[in-house]
């Protein structure tokens, strides 16, 4: 039996009609794909149901990325899980590497993402190398409960494996798409930090903008990627700024 026969690919999805077909095609060798629909209003689900190895489930109420992904994992028939996003594509040569791996119960595999802005792979601004823990046994570990920036829990006895350049990620196709994602993620992050009792200040938010821009544009090589490098650097910095300004507002309102 190949590993792809005992690994369920699991996807949390909302309005991904532009990328879902390519994502699912890259998973054609997996015998099961679990797709959790979080309230799609476009053709995502209709496209997904055309793939014979896809099982669609629905959870319209968003309760945080970590919790949502654990719900999706619970629908899988297999204990081994490959978590992948609807705007990601598993590179063809990686399937063979997955099948060749020795998977022990405590094995957790990190896959490196190639993050694209339009048609350009952005190996700058902290976007590369971008390792994310994606293959694991659900009897051994699970996703944490983070509202945003969720991740698989790594335990003291975890056997870690890394695979480079494993996923093509359509991170952004325009400035608008980055701004939309940034706005949503900074709101969720601020809410999470507020619930944890974290504090913020206007001065601190401004400092984070300046520091994050300088790090991304100059030290993380955004300057070598033309206008895209500048845009990503500015928007990464804006994300840091708005995250803490939103937290500042939440703190003021709670008083």
How would you describe the overall organization of this protein?
The chain is of the alpha/beta class. The protein has 2 domains: 3-172, Spore Coat Polysaccharide Biosynthesis Protein SpsA, Chain A; 175-254, no CATH class. It is built from 8 helices and 9 strands. It has helices at residues 3-6, 20-25, 44-48, 65-74, 92-100, 175-195, 202-219, 226-254; strands spanning 7-13, 32-37, 54-58, 80-83, 88-90, 107-117, 120-121, 130-137, 159-172. Strands 1, 2, 3, 4, 5, 6, 7, 8 and 9 form a 9-stranded mixed sheet that branches. Strand 6 (107-117) and strand 7 form a beta hairpin. The mean pLDDT is 97.
Can you give me a brief rundown of this structure?
The protein has 255 residues and is of the alpha/beta class.
Task: Please estimate the helix content.
Answer: 40-55%
- The helix/strand series, from N terminus to C terminus, equals HEHEHEHEEHEEEEHHH
**Number of structural domains:** 2
Question: If you consult CATH, what is the topology of the largest domain?
Answer: Spore Coat Polysaccharide Biosynthesis Protein SpsA, Chain A
Instruction: Count all strands and give the number.
Output: 9
| Oligomer type | single chain
Counting helices, strands and paired strands, the structural category is alpha/beta
Distance between the termini: 59 Å
**Mean pLDDT over all positions:** 97
CATH architecture of the largest domain: Alpha-Beta Complex
Number of helices, where a helix is a run of at least 4 consecutive DSSP H or I residues: 8
Q: For the report, how would you describe the main beta sheet?
A: 9 strands, mixed
**Silhouette:** globular
CATH superfamily of the largest domain: Spore Coat Polysaccharide Biosynthesis Protein SpsA, Chain A
Radius of gyration: 19 Å
Beta-strand proportion: 15-25%
Poorly predicted runs of 5 or more residues? none
What is the C-level CATH assignment of the largest domain?
A: Alpha Beta
